[in-house]
């Protein structure tokens, strides 16, 4: 048997402990070392009367078994008296039944039940709350009932109070989490002195209170991390409950009314629980309404559930199963040879003297190209791990590499053994196909070296009724509408793909003419990640003097294939430390990489960042001021806000800039460009509307409901924007 749970040094208050469930809890805690406050008013089953006998008897039983206990005879409405010497509180409310049909429930019946069950729980918990916060520990168990969850004839007052306890517990779970205060709710079924008059003796025997107490003890233990849970328990069985919601149906269109006849006609779809969602918090609940507003703006409805279900089965794609799944961990060992081979594979040559540092291990500055960071991560897919993920049953010959994001957290070593951990971040339905977002984190020992996000497009696997966008996707960015600041061209060799594949991508599409023909190509094509490597090293040479330590991240979208022997032309636009890039085939002018950029670290000499040219984004001024403010008042702002805000500033309908305001970590920080961490809320707004909002000319709520301001994530945090944006009207 595993190590027993003990409660030595813990003070436990059990209300209604004179009999039934409360008595069983008190005895169990006492046996396992807790000091128990046995509270019982000693009333009858209708809540009347008062006696110390019930509580005294339980105290005697605990002491007889070597435990510590003291009786308390106060009403739970006198919470302060119960908590007087307690450092930990576990709110237990005994059941008081006053069965009346709703039509016969008097004000007295209603008020008595609510005072004892709901108000009593509030009073006891409030008295204990500050003690728990100070000691950074607390476990609270609320007792609801099946009548509260499902309703029951003749118990309107009792049902309302018991479900009210669940709402109270859910909020306490949220507010107490950062103080290590956990609050859970149980709905027990057990025989007691309050139900023995209505239950047959045989049934009472099978529903012993001792079959409920073990769950209460576990939820009360410091090892238990469950928080905000709801459990039914009885007769030796325990089950966890959660909310479930149908996919629903949008029943209005943009600029049109909403009518009861439409609700009637769509009722079956509204009530169809096929592919039901399971919202776990208010943010997930509100997120659906935010998505609905977006769909209404684009006249895009939610597909009926039966179609979605059939499409899911036909495509073999099930986001509910796949998202969050982890692939087997992969290991990649390499030496300087692999670094050199990769550099040759992306077009480096000894003809260029400044390439030697990536090609010769004896060079004093011998380095590994930053984009080599994709090589260890791709083993997660190449080793067949993707095919083992539940919910991703598709034809791998229809898989295309859509986009790639790479971020380095330190320069890559020129040799070593690395491990990569991959998980499915999201699955999207693009109609003509499915998009799989695969996140891969690569480590050297316990140190994170780099992060990759693969955007994989599965042709023909769409139409399963999933969402089209994800806040987990690293976004592409449109390049500035002006002549490139720099252009660099390199000609690939006839054997470029044959050379690049030696770095680990053995797909015969890049070497075998017959296989390429099956894919609809006249001849083998160049790897997309090879073009990716060409473009990245062009930026590194043009703007970082081939200093690999300056490289931060790169994002690209693969548009068209390149044939070995064609010339790759990289166009570059510099905006601060971000270099927007677009890569073309010089001979045809066809764009092969779009929406791309490379972010560089500032030069070691502290060279100032170049600001946007005239005609750039006005919001740059506001974010620059926010950055200065964070430097001065960051710690204070973190205390007030405690959240990470992502901003997507658009211009002409495209994302023109990305900012992240981190007021959750340390003394706060402002980041420009894609953010590798997790934001609590992301706001998308045009540059012009953003300035209208911060200058007080546009009400944020009106902007939101007009579709001018879109919010993803915890929408409630938008209320804290005033702390961040105030005092900018002068700009």
TrEMBL record:
Record GO cellular component, one term: peroxisome
Q: Which PROSITE patterns match?
A: ADH_SHORT
Q: In which pathway does it act?
A: Lipid metabolism; fatty acid beta-oxidation
Record localization: Peroxisome
Give one GO term, molecular function aspect: oxidoreductase activity
Note the InterPro entries from the entry: HotDog_dom_sf (IPR029069), KR_dom (IPR057326), MaoC-like_dom (IPR002539), MFE-2_N (IPR054357), NAD(P)-bd_dom_sf (IPR036291), Peroxisomal_Beta-Oxidation (IPR051687), Sc_DH/Rdtase_CS (IPR020904), SCP2_sterol-bd_dom (IPR003033)
Keyword line: Fatty acid metabolism, Isomerase, Lipid metabolism, Lyase, NAD, Oxidoreductase, Peroxisome
Q: What SUPFAM superfamilies does the record point to?
A: NAD(P)-binding Rossmann-fold domains, SCP-like, Thioesterase/thiol ester dehydrase-isomerase
- Fetch the SMART domains from UniProt: PKS_KR
Highest rank taxon of the organism:
Eukaryota
User: Would you identify the family this protein belongs to, as annotated?
Assistant: Belongs to the short-chain dehydrogenases/reductases (SDR) family.
Q: What is this protein called?
A: Peroxisomal multifunctional enzyme type 2
- Provide the species name: Oncorhynchus kisutch
Gene that this sequence comes from: HSD17B4
